[in-house]
Amino acid sequence: MNGSPLDQGVLAELRALSGAGQDLLAEVVGVFVDEAPRQIQALQAALAGGDAALVLRAAHRLKGSANGVGARAMGDVAAAIESAARGGDVGRAAREAQGLAEAFDAARAALEREIGRA
Length: 118
Prior knowledge:
Elements: H1 8-17, H2 24-49, H3 52-68, H4 72-86, H5 90-97, H6 100-114
Helix pairs in contact: 2-3, 2-6, 3-4, 4-5, 4-6
């Protein structure tokens, strides 16, 4: 890949789904940018509580959100957290989560450039 935190194929699919006068990509990006911080907070709370099942669910939800908007690198971080939690290793999940805020910031900036907000 080209080092971009985004999956251009997903972005192209979202653009293709937009109808006349509709910008589905901008709408989806807006929801993601608004909701992802809450999902990250929920994940961090689950990590702090040490509950592998809650971490697994929160990471899975975040992975889906990230991948659905083309935030590939962030989805990869969430997938690593999910994998660790699936194995019951909350400590490893917490270590994987250390890169999550940076991955979200990179995804948000790149997505906003894609839709012309930045």
